[in-house]
Amino acid sequence: MDKVAKQNALNAHTWVGVFLSVLLFLVCLSGTIAVFHLEFERWEQPHIEEMENVTPQAIEKAMDTFLAENTEESHHLYVVFPTSDIPRLVVENDHAAYFSDSDGNLIEKESVSFTQMLVDLHLYLNLPHSWGMILVSALGAIICTLVITGIIAHKRISKDAFKLRRGGNGQQAQIDLHNRFGLWASPFHLVIGITGTYFGLAGIILVLVATANYGGDRDAVINQIFTPDPVIAPQEGKPAIGKAFAQMETLAPEKSPIFLTVHEVGEPEQFIEIYAKAPNRMIYAEGYRFDTAGNYIGDAGYEDGEWGKQLFWSMYRLHFGDFAGLTSKWFYFVLGVMLTMLCVSGMEIWLSKKAHPPLASRLWYAVVWGSVSALALTATVDMFFAGSLIAVFWCLMLFNTAVTVAVKSLTKPVWLMISGLSVLVLLATYFAVNQSAALSIASLQLNIPMAIYVAWSIYRSAVLIRRSKKVAVYRDGDSPGDKNQVGINQKTLGTNINA
């Protein structure tokens, strides 16, 4: 490929990354953390009883109690089974959700405000969903563009595939690390970009496919992806969800029921559908359908459908890494950290080439490490505050920006320290509020990684602060004879501090 094409690709890669760096970083950071969104739901209420299985009788009792206490009209009823990725029994409708113990007694209302805010940040950047999804999907396409242009712009992609140079002023090592992360994990980054783009553009794709192949009939396209509701005789009465659930051991003994939905509650077309995870399959679930009396009707055919239908039903697990338990989630987390660090290192390389303009550099570090601090403090506030966490998070982000502009000492080491201390405040508050439940599996699976982050961030910030003090010593020790060497050392150390 000629030099002009490589240079054009490099220019496109640079400027797209620079102008969209903040949005790309927030989407990548929130997505990396949201890989554990189910674990965060458990973490938010760690004292709830957890179980491996539940009896049909307990499910019936929990739903009967729930309906007696929640009489508002609802088009759907749901039961989340402990055989899902959350080992708890939950009964809910379109308005509220309650946990139940293994005997079918309701415990307390489900409250996962922080998890909802985090997922909303990743999917919509906390914007109105109609166009927030389109923006985030466009960013998914931008990620694909950055991956492709980055590969095209690489001058010696085969020779430099494993090169990581150390020493000097640190800038070359940062460039090498940026290139290695971008190259090694490019298949993953493309998968994330493509699936993320799909989620937001599904509506547009639906219209295009309907126009091209079905004479504009969108319902016809939907019926190809989502199996139409069963045609059954008019139904009435209370749905026999316990009877339906009991049949799963015979109908699909190898599958794990995830949740149950009662569609069109109280209407003649009411029916029950149980979604079960198929082992060794990427699709989200297969649907098993029952009439109101609990008689089996048939399956939805997602598992054995055409490849397009199976691909569609695999998008969720493919995007969030939810297909091989915690193993795949941790794998996605590590790769997500690499993608997030690409956003950070790419911007820092650009700032380095611009001689690290003070205000722009401080603002970037306020976004990178300040967002970690804002998320931690938002989770802390959630333990005492019943209002909008979206407002809390963005007020904290605006406060970080304003303080960074006003206080020149808020450099990268300081912001890194603040982020670690913020997570430490979160952990301390969490232990104070939840006490012994903070030592449960539901808590420790996230508290331990957060404690590791606290230790790393405080250690790393201390290292960077020591380097900055060395720069100050060199400045104070300037002498005419050492002026040139001191200038070189200042430049070298200053760059390393920002590495």
From TrEMBL:
<feature type="transmembrane region" description="Helical">
    <location>
        <begin position="363"/>
        <end position="381"/>
    </location>
</feature>
<keyword id="KW-0812">Transmembrane</keyword>
<feature type="transmembrane region" description="Helical">
    <location>
        <begin position="131"/>
        <end position="153"/>
    </location>
</feature>
<feature type="transmembrane region" description="Helical">
    <location>
        <begin position="330"/>
        <end position="351"/>
    </location>
</feature>
<feature type="transmembrane region" description="Helical">
    <location>
        <begin position="188"/>
        <end position="210"/>
    </location>
</feature>
<feature type="transmembrane region" description="Helical">
    <location>
        <begin position="387"/>
        <end position="407"/>
    </location>
</feature>
<keyword id="KW-1133">Transmembrane helix</keyword>
<protein>
    <submittedName>
        <fullName>PepSY domain-containing protein</fullName>
    </submittedName>
</protein>
<keyword id="KW-0472">Membrane</keyword>
<dbReference type="Pfam" id="PF03929">
    <property type="entry name" value="PepSY_TM"/>
</dbReference>
<dbReference type="InterPro" id="IPR005625">
    <property type="entry name" value="PepSY-ass_TM"/>
</dbReference>
<feature type="transmembrane region" description="Helical">
    <location>
        <begin position="439"/>
        <end position="459"/>
    </location>
</feature>
<feature type="transmembrane region" description="Helical">
    <location>
        <begin position="12"/>
        <end position="36"/>
    </location>
</feature>
<feature type="transmembrane region" description="Helical">
    <location>
        <begin position="414"/>
        <end position="433"/>
    </location>
</feature>
